[in-house]
Design brief:
alpha/beta, 11 helices, two-stranded antiparallel ribbon, 7 strands, Rossmann fold
């Protein structure tokens, strides 16, 4: 019987909820194993010793979260991160465009509407948002915002069976059923400004779709629903930097699509979930001391 831990760091508990959405599969897992820590399910205050499988959601933004991740790693045989925040830093990682203390001051003391410039009292902030893997060794990662339920079930059950789980090596375009013709529209578009052809590749129509730079295995539900892939599953198997991969694809199209590429302007699109784990973030930190 394996001991299982589910812990949340900086996040909204959405990935823990996704884990609970395993329903019958979760009941079967829990009937054969022991859940020793899970803030959304049981009242356990301390991280127990000798955990077999630890599941961590959320990135690291405070010293408390950093120490908690280190404690979990020390007491666990296997650590799994679930969700884009834990795996890559997630959307909160875009805060790394500025140093943490300066960003806190700007938001709470300098913006119009703040009251007497008082900063909130809370746990000590780290300078930057970090994915869990930047702080401790992670054995397996399940990406997505939220992660796919089938991926969680597959990785967890495979590990508990003593086997090695393998995630998809495809990209979202491999999963997408939209037709690709190899020709592109001459102007960039936004979904709220026009209605796309329901059958044609969205990128070829001029919409910024992150499919070519994003790990597949999700079945491409966003393009199927008429929405561009926003990259929540992070980089593909072959490319470790999602934004640079997408920039490489876009540079040759920039003139055709009329896009004036800019890192500050487009980081929220090409690095929406992975800026905190990108090469560019590290370069900016080293060169400009942000």
């Amino acid at each position: 019987m394996a001991k299982i831990l589910i812990a949340g760091l900086a996040g909204d508990s959405g990935c823990q909820v996704a884990t609970l959405a395993l329903h019958e599969k979760l009941l079967q897992i829990l009937s054969e194993n022991e859940l020793v820590y899970a803030s959304t399910l049981i009242d356990a205050k301390q991280i127990p010793e000798e955990v077999d499988v630890a599941i961590i959601e959320g990135g690291i933004r405070t010293e408390h979260e950093k120490h908690l991740a280190e404690e979990i790693r020390k007491k666990s045989k296997t650590v799994i991160t679930i969700g884009s925040c834990a795996c890559f830093g997630g959307i909160p990682g875009l805060a790394n465009l500025e140093e943490g203390g300066e960003l806190l001051k700007k938001v709470y003391a300098e913006l119009e509407g703040t009251v007497e410039g008082h900063l909130p009292v809370h746990d000590t902030l780290t300078n930057y948002v970090a994915p869990v893997g930047n702080v401790v060794k992670v054995d397996y990662s399940i990406p997505g915002c939220p992660p796919e339920i089938d991926d969680i079930a597959y990785v967890l059950t495979t590990l508990l069976e003593g086997k090695v789980p393998l995630l998809s090596k495809s990209d979202v375009c491999d999963d997408c059923k939209r037709e690709r013709l190899g020709t592109y529209k001459t102007a960039a578009k936004r979904l709220h400004e026009s209605i796309p052809d329901p059958d044609r590749c969205l990128l070829e129509q001029g919409y910024l779709c992150m499919g070519p730079a994003t790990r597949g295995g999700c079945g491409a539900p966003c393009p199927a629903a008429g929405h561009t892939c926003d990259g929540c599953r992070g980089p593909t198997e072959k490319n470790d930097d999602q934004g640079l991969t997408m920039l490489d694809a876009l540079v040759s199209l920039a003139n055709e699509l009329g896009v004036n590429l800019s890192l500050p302007r487009h980081s929220g699109s090409i690095y929406r979930y992975t800026f905190a784990s990108s090469r560019i973030e590290k370069l900016l930190r080293e060169r400009f001391k942000i």
